[in-house]
Amino acid sequence: MASYQLIALALVTIFLPTLTMAAEHIVGDEQGWTVNFNYTTWASGKVFHVGDTLVFNYKPPHNLFKVDGAGFKDCAASGEPMASGNDIITLSSPGKKWYICGYGKHCSELGQKLVINVEAETPAPTPEPNAAYGLAASCYQIFAAAVAVVAMIAA
Ligand SMILES: [Cu+2]
């Protein structure tokens, strides 16, 4: 059991650097999408890129509307909200994105609103950024592979 987990961990360690750099942002972290939380503070210092995802975790009566700048300012939502309680939004274009809760005064008085600025996709890393990095990365992958082999033998 533990060995399988170790193998899985080793494989992830080996392959993770080769995967896309897209990040997942859990809105509000463990607080989720709720009232009386400062989403401006949450978003500050974070960098959002095209291809990243936003995850909104919440329970009813909260919901989620993607709005424009005016809708954000006035807390005015139209159309059907997202309401799954676990809405995953892929940021598909650069620029400002606005999200609000459409329930009661959650947006207007209780701060349940989020604005982010999405930056263009991270350029693909160049194959050989520099020799030192390449060497370190190789050593790391060899080490990770060795861990995987040992884990498999131990299993
Ligand atoms: Cu709400």
From TrEMBL:
**Native organism:** Populus trichocarpa
Q: Which domain of life is it from?
A: Eukaryota
Q: Name the Gene Ontology biological process terms.
A: response to symbiotic fungus
- Which GO cellular component does the record give, naming just one? plasma membrane
Query: Membrane among the record's keywords?
Result: yes
This chain belongs to the protein called Phytocyanin domain-containing protein
The cross-references to Gene3D superfamilies, in alphabetical order and at most eight, read: Cupredoxins - blue copper proteins
Signal peptide (UniProt feature, chain positions): 1-22
Keyword terms: Copper, Disulfide bond, Electron transport, Glycoprotein, Membrane, Metal-binding, Signal, Transmembrane, Transmembrane helix, Transport
Which is one GO molecular function term here? electron transfer activity
PANTHER family under this entry?
BLUE COPPER PROTEIN (PTHR33021), PHYTOCYANIN DOMAIN-CONTAINING PROTEIN (PTHR33021:SF408)
The family database entries (InterPro entries) matched by this protein are listed as: Cupredoxin, Phytocyanin-like, Phytocyanin_dom
Keyword Transmembrane applies: yes
- The Phytocyanin domain covers 23-120
